[in-house]
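Help!! Second protein's tokens look totally different from the first
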Amino acid sequence: MRYKSDIRFINRLFATMLVAVVMAACKNAAEEPEAPARPDSYCIGLYIESGEKAVSRATPAGDYDPGEGYENYIDVSGGDFRVALFTADKADPTADGVLIGQPTDIRLIPQDDSFTGSKRWLLEIEVDAFVRSMIHKGSCKILMLANWRNNYPSLEQGTRLSTLFASATPVDYSDGLPVPALTADDKIALFGICQYDDVNLRPNSRVVFDEYLHLLRALAKIEVYNDEASTDLIESVSITRHTTKAMPMPKGVTHQSHYVKGNYNEDYGPGPSLPSATELTEETEPAAFGKDPATGNFVIYVPEYRNIFNGEKRDDDKRARIKVKYRDKMVEYIDFAYYKTTVAADGSGSYSTVDTSKGTDGHFDILRNYWYKYKLKRNQSRVTWVVDVVPYAERYLAPGFGLDYDDGNP
């Protein structure tokens, strides 16, 4: 914990998940939080930034992707975000939190050129003397929600973090899934929680916490594109199954350690957080990808999907798979799976098969905040592809997670 007299030294922070650094402050420069409007209130500034590397995050080597444009959008003009403070226990960080209060005044200001795709934000909030008395010299958890279509759970005195998921309303995509080019209407729901210990709100000074607050997108991004050496080009791409509703937050999360594990296999949650059985609908009609006007790649944004059920991979007609159609009408189906390269016994070359030693019989679920990238190479009647699974944040996935493979069968 550090005290500073100005805040211009903050030149690194997060990257997409959207990483936030919390600061308590009183304004003495144009970009700093304003002083409290009332003598019994206290000013806190929350900086959110994407696109740079947060070098102190303890994750394996590699890169996460920062996201771009409306993938980072927060609906400020519509007031579609909430911030709240909850109790916390330094001795038991994962203990449930109880609502302390919400800011008495709040502003979210882009630090880049526009509200559309700003990667740096300043959140200015004021808390009253009661909230200060609850967190000063102690611990607190800060919750941020955004882009929930202004359909947030009621945050009343006594509300517990553990009850938020059950009271959250799914985002409905019955009218279609987002595809490029994204607009403000496609705003992706965000959720983040972080505990801060040894809080000390001192007058006329600022406290900077080193812990980041990670905001998770509620959707996954899937991208399919041609290898430069392909002999034929992709005509269309679709996903065979998807859910029509996305939970705006993950289940069972009351502390950042519940979804930031420090390794790629567990980061962001061990499995999909799905709506209740009465709300959950799996569409069997394939959903078409859109073509990114900037890259020409095929892209779609989807809610989480369960490809694994009761510890086993689901049948082909129950799993979400990618259907690729070429201009000569050849069709390939691609799974969400781990693969390994095998040399053919007859010396005809190498091919790839599902690596059943990983995941569940080689397969995995579609999870929020991941970017699944498929690079396809067409050679006569044979298609090979490279799979890359990229968490949205600071660093790219370590080599070996996605490998070249050639299934050859639907």
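Here's the second one for comparison:
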Amino acid sequence: MTKQQKSTVAWLIVIIAFFGGFALANVQNKVPPVMLEIMTAFNIGETDAGWLTSVFTIMGMVTAIPASVLMRKLGAKKIGVIALACAAAGSAIGAFATDLTMLMITRVLEGVGVGMIAVVGPAVISEWFPVEKRGLPMGLWGSWMMCSQTLLFFISAGLVAWGGWQGVWWFTTIFAVVVLVLYLWKVRDPAGTEDEPNYAIGEEEGDFNLAAGFSSASTWLITLAGLIFTFCCFGFATYISLYWDQVFFNDGMETSNLYVSILYAIEIPMVIFIGWLLNKIRPKQRHWVGTLGFALYIIVLWFCFRMDDPGMLIPFVIIYPFLEGVIPTVYWTLAPTTAKKLEDGPTAIGILNVGLNIGTLLGPPITGFFIENYGWATATIPLAAAAAVGAIIFIFVKQYNIGEE
């Protein structure tokens, strides 16, 4: 196989891996667009509704590192298939939930899938692309969450009109099943046969020692940065449509969901552009992009639940995605290279995913607690403060095995 053919195959597989992340992000993000319907159907408040967004991440935390180990034994295809099957099953069962406990349990099953798929995408990119070319595919991968948020906020009103909140659950089930078929059809590992060497030329697999993957301080630093980011972005995303509906529209979140959809649609090309830009920056300087991203993110988080002027809404929708989109692209690109040895890259990705899930777990209920007890404006304080810490953390992230002295 020529280098051009390998590149074509690599991009095809990465695109399917991206849709795997897209499918799992749909499962993860389906609560906020139908927040009012869920709160009404199950007679719950903002805090309990926040836990519906967060509870399944417990399994994401539990499965992230084991998934990185299983990746080495089973490969990306089998792990992706298991992840998508868990998502489809959990979403289908959840559509029949008649009480909050049953719905929570299905979110845990879905969380198994999220914990696994979050390892698959970055690992596939690390396998098929050398370090200097990973920025753009990591940028594409980093847009999976924004694509999901854009889609669900845009179509949720129609799905609810068709089948209530369960209509969203059935949509995510079907989406996951379609991508599952694509995984079974096309995804494979580059080192699956002797005549298909790893496209990341020169990256030979060494003897694997799981404990060694935990020894890099930079892996833990980027994990903490990722935790802070998901704490902030899910605290924001879970409640922003509800806030805008209460302050500006008061139409059952139909208009506010549309604005949120536009916001995340703008963010999609932004993260891909940042990925392209990272390819132009020396690998050892890329962490500064993360610092800058967090520093600017502080500003929009401070104002997100303080807006009361309708004239601020359009500028916010345009500016916010440009500031939020930088951070995930950077940490996905840097994560494998924070491991001191090449063979520990999947472990670093697994550790990062534990942090991402912890942030996702804590962000919505903590933000909901502040909203319920202290008001919308006060809820911006922990979000902005956390982002400030994230900016500082990125300063100290180091990378290894990137071909630079």
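Reply: Different proteins will give different token patterns, so don't panic. The CA atoms of residues 36 and 252 lie 7 Å apart.
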